[in-house]
């Protein structure tokens, strides 16, 4: 009979460690008589348990030396300027997310694929093929460029070839996954095709399929999850980087990664973003419980799913002795601000941005900069020749969660002699961006509809 010997471990899981029970030891004995199919099913179950306990993967900032988008000729100020420009673009692209099956229907997706700030590495198929993908809480569809790519942007990494993978399976039109698409024009029993159009007209077209996704954890172990539904893209057009080859969506819709993993990760995910200045450290994404936010200093606020985005309720902002209330049309008491990992700046209503900038100017004892090139920011200051200048803490008063943020999370050095408030009124929607989330463990509990903040050192997370 067939016999097996194996070791399964994941150093990324936090103590206390779980030791096998007597019944589990008995189950291990069965490995020596298991048939391959039964063994494979057991490994899938083990993977599900590991996922529920939580596993961590690296989130690579696009400007990190680890990123394929890294430009060594750019200065830190160049990168801040580019990130601010991306922040200004994202709100205008935030529209109702959607997919369209094959046919003439095309529904606008929420964001441009190349203006998000974080990447992750994932391996597709059997044998494994590495994809460097944009990861985004504002996008739903998981997709990767595939062979043959008949009308595609030129891509530096080689394309994923589904014919080389023994675990790749096209999805039929009459399947449940295909029916998750808002509309379908495909013929029964044919493969399910998708068309995904972004706000600027960029587009990806291909086959919806199932494939095994393998993640490398922070402990350098791997976890393979079978039957992840993704888009195998065979055509695209528009604005894409030739150094990335896909996208992993974390938005609250059924085809996103977190929704597909669902109960296997206890409907939870979290991340911890290192400060932009810490170029030798890497941010983390946790899928599952992992090291859940805990302790007396944890703040919890309601999380609302609305128009395919994660919304919070911001009642106001406090700085010094000034309290700024949320204003119409984003009044307090109702979900009014998107929390987003892909936008650097905080985007506020024009009234709130103006009042916040005014309050900060009243407190900061530095010359105000009125350069038209800095009009994106709510307030900027000249710091040349100044010593020991201080910037105030700013509290974002979320429902039940007054989040007090220091200057690291609220101000940006935009040039050698200039510091700006990391807030803007660029856009119709309000967004709580990633600068404000640095050194916070941010946990999304989709089962309880709540979001938690915990102040931590993300370089040691």
Brief digest:
The chain crosses the membrane at residues 25-52. The chain has seven helices and 28 strands.
Q: C-alpha Rg, in Å?
A: 23 Å
Total number of beta strands? 28
**Category from helices, strands and their pairing:** alpha+beta
Strand content: 25-35%
What's the arrangement of strands in the largest beta sheet?
A: 3-4-10-5-9-8
Reported by name, the CATH topology of the largest domain is: Cathepsin D, subunit A, domain 1
Dominant shape: globular
| SS field, number of helical segments | 7
Shape-level CATH architecture of the largest domain: Beta Barrel
Note the gap between the termini: 45 Å
Q: Percentage of helical residues?
A: 10-25%
| Fourth-level CATH superfamily of the largest domain | Acid Proteases
Low-confidence stretches: 1-49, 95-113
Q: State the major sheet.
A: 6 strands, mixed, barrel
Number of domain units? 2
CATH class identity of the largest domain: Mainly Beta
On the 0-100 scale, what is the average pLDDT? 80
Description:
The chain has 461 residues and is of the alpha+beta class. It folds into two domains: 56-268, Acid Proteases (Cathepsin D, subunit A, domain 1, Beta Barrel), CATH 2.40.70.10; 293-460, Acid Proteases (Cathepsin D, subunit A, domain 1). It is 15% helix and 31% strand. Strands 3-4-10-5-9-8 form a six-stranded mixed beta barrel. Strand 3 and strand 4 (129-136) form a beta hairpin. The longest helix has 18 residues, at 36-53. It is globular. 46% of the residues are buried.
SSE order and pairing:
Elements: H1 22-29, H2 36-53, E1 55-61, H3 76-93, E2 100-101, E3 118-124, E4 129-136, E5 143-145, E6 169-170, H4 176-179, E7 193-197, E8 203-216, E9 222-237, E10 246-249, H5 257-261, E11 268-272, E12 283-287, E13 299-302, E14 304-306, E15 309-312, E16 314-319, E17 322-325, E18 337-339, E19 346-347, H6 350-363, E20 380-382, E21 394-398, E22 401-405, H7 407-410, E23 411-415, E24 418-421, E25 423-424, E26 431-432, E27 440-445, E28 450-455
Parallel strand pairs: 4-10, 5-9, 18-26, 19-25
Antiparallel strand pairs: 1-3, 1-12, 2-7, 3-4, 3-8, 5-10, 6-8, 7-8, 8-9, 11-12, 11-27, 13-28, 14-15, 15-18, 16-17, 16-21, 20-24, 21-22, 23-24, 27-28
Family: Belongs to the peptidase A1 family.
GO biological process, one term: proteolysis
Pfam families: TAXi_C, TAXi_N
